[in-house]
# Entry
Amino acid sequence: MSHPGAAPIVRGLAAAGLLMLAAGTARAASDAGLSDLIYPALNLSLLLGVLFYYARKPVQAFFQDRRDRIRGELETAAELRKQAEVRHAHWQRQLIDLEAETDRIRAAALERAESERERILDDARVAAERIRTDARAAIEQEVRRARNQLREEAADLSLKLASEILRSQVTDSDNDRLVDEFIRKIEEPASNGDGIGR
# Structure
């Protein structure tokens, strides 16, 4: 890509080259016998004068453009650096905030876990107490049922034993005597009633 100030520089260099060619021709043509030092000095002065005259503005413009471009690039770089520093500071704050948020979440999770542990322990205590109460009630009910069953079995056994004792100790004569006493007791109220009626 060609620079906008390059054309005047090329023109200035072409003019200087022409002047040098003219000066060289003039020297060759000169029979005056001037010293070899004067012509090169004159050529150099002429060349520098032409270069200064024609190349001054393009060179100044070139360096001014280059200075402006460098200044612009430096300003852009400074702006980019500033933006990068702002972004870096933002991400640093985000990182600090993230660490704080992570610590907060961790603390909340630990608190929830502790609360949940306490709730589970309370539920377990209540369930254990309920199981104990239910077990006591079931045991008491079983004990009552067993006692009632034992009483019934004891009563049945007592009746059996009593009947066996009565069978073994009561003879036929005792039987007859008990029957006679029973009949007499029944007849006595009937006979008393007959006497009262008369």
In short: Residues 160 and 169 are 14 Å apart (CA to CA). The chain has a mean pLDDT of 79.
